[in-house]
Amino acid sequence: MSEASGAGPLIQVENITRVFHVGGEEVRALRGVSFGINRGEWVAIIGQSGSGKSTMMNVLGCLDTPSSGRYMLNGKDVSRMSDDELAVIRNVEIGFIFQTFQLLPRETALANVELPLVYRGLGTRERRERAKAALDKVQLTHRMHHRPNELSGGQRQRVAIARALVSEPSMLLADEPTGNLDSATGEEIVRLFEQLHQAGHTLVLVTHEPKLAARCPRAIRLSDGEIVADGDGRTVAMGTATDVLNAGGA
Amino acid sequence: MSQVSAFRVDVLEGARIAVFSLKANRLRTVLTTLGIGIGVATLLAIVGIIQGLNTSFHNQLATFGANTMYVSKFPWMIKGDWWKYRNRKNFTLDQLHRLRTLAPFVTAMSPAVSRISDVAHGGEQLSTVRVQGVTHEYLNISGYELTGGRFLTEADDATTRPVAVVGADVVDGLFPGVSPVGQSIRIDNRSFQVVGTLSRKGKMVGQSMDLLVFIPFKTFYSSFGKGRGFEIAMAVEDASRMRSAEDQLTGILRRVRSTPPGAEDDFSINRPEAMAQTYEQLTGALYGVAVGVGLITLLVGGIGIMNIMLVSVRERTREIGVRRALGARKRTIVFQFLMEASSVSAVGGLLGTTVGLGTAKVVSLITPLAADVQPMTVVAGVGFAALVGLLFGIWPAARAANLDPVEALRYE
Question: Does B329 touch chain A (CB under 8 A)?
């Protein structure tokens, strides 16, 4: 793991804005957002739809670049990187977990988990071993030769988590990870996150569900593209502490 | 990750996904392949047949000998008014003898006249046999060789003997397993004695060169009438100086035929080599048209590929988003779709090659046309098909690679 490497926060976001041009109109999805996330933290980014949390997640995941401001990830300024460089950053630093799982339907669970390592240029044998190890962490080795449509929703999300873990990224970035699951299965996934957190992984979880955010030690609330609260997960999630800006980040 | 290993990932992963996707959409792959396949098949079949024609034509021309000329009132390839040639005066034997004395560079000379006849022996009969009246020197001009007996002699001609020298097809048709020399044949119900047999020449432009009988020139006239004119076949000393020989011969012929000064030649000097040029002009045009048709078919096939690739990109928008999120670079995505497009096309090319070659083969079996496909044609066929796929795959592949990963992941 890269948790041990380097001092200072893993993520440092400074005054980030993101402006979209839709039909000649300017939409300011992020209006100067700053925060830091340390290694090993478990942070929820919470907000209503339209709050800018999806844009925040895309920027954090290096799928999108900010219009202005600086984004330091693991000591590297990724806010001005080229498309190819960002592809490498996504491959090495970030493990994505999506609401809709985003598994390739025609590939087996094992092949899906191997995919990030394919793009890293690893040989077949090493890929296979590491993918199996990752599937073992989510207790799915017995289903590894099945295709996604032969797996339950919870199993699919566990395959997706294994895929995120396999490249040993600096952070896991989850977008509404329980959104497509029933509450029991969702709980199962949250427990898995708790385990990963205890094992030292850095987790960033983007959600609109206060209940989910309340399970995180820290939460950042976005509204209209700005941070309106940052602090203890439960407090921020329940919306009782709109004036605790900087309380948790400091 | 180094540049080399990055490239390896692009190619290997691209190829793997391409094969995977082609397998997953078998019906679609086959249908797409057909377009390209038909183009390649058309191209190869036509090219094969024309190449075959050319090869056999040249082989046959070679047996004529490069040092031969055929003087006649008709050119071999008539351009324009046939009646103009028809109305020229026939050659006479007197002109032939004068020509002989005036043209010392001619080493062999023979009049030649021919008709198509039925030839029979016992119960067997061959129709459409070419019967030629020639003299003893013709053997050296014609390029045939004797395989048995003797050729016609001066005495045969002088005394109008009913003797015949027969071609290989006549031997096979009338005398299976029997030596023909000494036997008698009937040419249009006139009796002739076989005195010699000829070596096989094969086919030229689909016509057998061995279904023929030589008889003495004078015998021909006495048997079948003097009405028709003859041509004068000749061999000259030096094959490398055919042009100057032709010029000299033109002057001599004008004198012999008393052509008025300033008037057009009233004869034609035909050379097999010159015929080859005319022939090449003719098939060259045909070749061009055929290749054009094949290329248009390939173009249509290519558009089919482009269409299906655009569908494929749209269908797999989310997959592209996922791959991009997991670290695939734009180039990797481009490779993936280019590989897919060119492998569909290459499969089509292979299919087309098989069908095209098969067609050419079948055509050569059931018609007199000989097909000849050179290995390079096959390589070019498959390679060209793959190239077409590559070209028409560029735009869809670029579209795929330029998708915004955020949008692609959200695509329903």
Answer: yes
Interface with chain B: mutation pick from A20, A63, A64, A117, highest number of B CBs within 10 Å: A63
The domain made up of A39-63+81-237 has a fold known as: Rossmann fold (3.40.50)
The tokens for B278 are 């005319």
Write the DSSP symbol of residue A200: T
Complex ipTM value? 0.91
With CA atoms as reference, the chain B residue closest to A113 would be: B326
Asked if B67 and B378 touch (Cβ cutoff 8 Å), the reply is: no
Three-state SS letters, A32-100:
EEEEEECCCCEEEEECCCCCCHHHHHHHHCCCCCCCEEEEEECCEECCCCCHHHHHHHHHHHEEEECCC
Please list every residue in chain A whose beta carbon sits closer than 8 Å to the beta carbon of residue B6.
121
- pLDDT one digit per residue (tens) for chain A, 250 residues: 444 445 579 999 999 999 999 888 999 999 999 999 999 999 999 998 889 999 999 999 999 999 999 999 999 999 989 999 999 999 999 999 999 999 999 899 999 999 999 999 888 899 999 999 999 999 999 999 999 999 999 999 999 999 999 999 999 999 999 999 999 999 999 999 999 999 999 999 999 999 999 999 999 999 999 999 999 999 998 875 444 444 444 3
Mutation target for A interface from B8, B13, B323, B326: give the one with most A CBs within 10 A: B326
Inform me whether the C-beta atom of residue A65 falls under 8 Å from chain B C-beta atoms. no
B250: amino acid identity, one letter: T
- Cβ of B327 within 8 Å of Cβ of A88? The answer is yes
A1 and chain B: CB distance < 8 Å anywhere? Answer: no
Boundaries of every domain in chain A: 39-63+81-237
